[in-house]
C-alpha cells in the first residue's frame, strides 16, 4: 500500500474525500491484504466512519477502471500542435518612406523648438 497517511489523517474524511483519495481507490481496485488490513483498522478505530467507508467502497467498486493510452494519431496531432506553438514567428521589417521620415524629423524639431521657447519664456528674471 502506498498510503502516506496515518489512520488519524482520515478521521475527518467524508464520503467525497474517500472517493477522491488515491490510496482508497487502490484498495477498492486491487484489494491487497495490506490495504484491507489498513482500512479494517481504520473502521475499528473510527466506527462512526464505517457507513461512509462502506458506501464509498460500494460506489467505487461499481465503476469500471479502464486505462486507455492515447492512440498514435492523436499523440502525433498533439505533438504537432506543441511544435507549431513553439516556433518563432517570422519578423516583418517595414521601412519608413523618405517622406514620412522627413515629416517625423520636422515634427521632432518643431516640438524641441517649442519646448525650448516655452522654457526660455517661463524663466523669471530676478534683479
Could you explain the architecture of this structure?
With 127 residues, the protein is mostly helical. It is built from six helices and no strands. The N and C termini lie far apart (94 Å).
Largest sheet: none
The total count of helices amounts to 6
Instruction: Evaluate the radius of gyration.
Output: 37 Å
On the 0 to 100 scale, the average pLDDT is 85
Shape: elongated
Count of beta strands: 0
Topology record:
Blueprint: H1 15-20, H2 22-30, H3 33-45, H4 50-62, H5 72-86, H6 98-122
What's the quick description here?
The protein has 127 residues and is mostly helical. It contains six helices and no strands.
Name some characteristics of this structure:
6 helices, 127 residues, 0% strand, elongated, mainly alpha, single chain
Amino acid at each position: 500500500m502506498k498510503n502516506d497517511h496515518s489512520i488519524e489523517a482520515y478521521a475527518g474524511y467524508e464520503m467525497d474525500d474517500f472517493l477522491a483519495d488515491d490510496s482508497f481507490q487502490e484498495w477498492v481496485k486491487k484489494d491487497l491484504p495490506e490495504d484491507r488490513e489498513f482500512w479494517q483498522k481504520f473502521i475499528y478505530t473510527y466506527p462512526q466512519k464505517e457507513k461512509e467507508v462502506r458506501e464509498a467502497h460500494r460506489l467505487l467498486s461499481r465503476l469500471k477502471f479502464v486505462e486507455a493510452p492515447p492512440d498514435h494519431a492523436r499523440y502525433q496531432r498533439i505533438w504537432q500542435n506543441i511544435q507549431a506553438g513553439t516556433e518563432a514567428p517570422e519578423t516583418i521589417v517595414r521601412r519608413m518612406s523618405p517622406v514620412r521620415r522627413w515629416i517625423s524629423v520636422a515634427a521632432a524639431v518643431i516640438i524641441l523648438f517649442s519646448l525650448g521657447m516655452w522654457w526660455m519664456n517661463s524663466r523669471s528674471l530676478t534683479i
